[in-house]
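Entry 14. Ran structure prediction on the chain below.
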Amino acid sequence: MKLQDAVRIFADGKRAGGAVYAKGFQCLSSFCRYVGNLELSTIRERHVASFLDSSHTSTVSWLKKYNVLRDFFIFWMARNAVDRLPMPPARPMVASTFVPYIYSRTQIRLLLANIRASQKLEACQIDAPTLRAFLLFLYGTGALLSEACGLLREDVNFKRGLIAIRSNRFNRSREIPIGPDLYRVLRRYHATNHQTGEMRATQFFLNKEGNPLSQVTLVKTFQRLRRIAGVARRDGAIYQPRLHDFRHTFAVHRLSAWIKHGADLNRMIPALSAYIGQVGLGSTYRYLNLTPERFRTQLDKLSPRRSNKRWRDNPALMKFLAEL
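Output, structure tokens:
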């Protein structure tokens, strides 16, 4: 069997099982282009090692590609298409030193104040009102960039003040309430950008031509806005603030507000985890380390052992979330 056919069959099987498998298929397709459409049985460890080491990627990215290829060859070894696993030794995992950027409220106001200046050129694909509403949506919901781009008009229920977030990853789809400030922003945007009788895309956020927003264009647009607003990291980190950091900022600002008001974080963190679509508590608990130092005494009282539990497995927490 040729490698190209094997990749297609393997990917089709993943999709038939309900997986999107876009990145996995992309990795396998890249491998096929790199080594050529070889007979599956002739692929050796040197082919895989050469592909994995062909680009300068982080250890995390290297291991992700490694695991995709390993799963692929295990699948075909179980079906006697290959007689052995052609995988080189895996790289040892290293601890990540990356720290997300947390915008201050002053910086968020700076970004919003400079949107009109950054989008004044005719060549800009995204107008100022759309970019403003989009950024406030990210900050007000903690949604992923892909979730915000995929938001449909029918997902925004103004009558009930609810938004349906669609996601194909780890059962992250959810329905969340929104506050009055974000409600007014979205209501105003909807009234001015979704005129009846026009042929428009079904997405909620649209560019000047009435088409869905491109994630690539959004990233480039935001980096231009960030430079104009003078928002930058000054802690020596390589990466500058990103759109994705609005998600981290939402979580940290929410935790800070709860701490100020004396809320029980052992009850509220599962609610935050559910709201932003995280499967386990561990990912949400890490935001505690990003909150201001003046809250350190309160944070030290929390039990770190809870971080390994899944909030869905706790009946009391599920009852609490249902009553929100």
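The chain has three domains: 3-77, 105-229, 245-322. Will compare against last week's run tomorrow.
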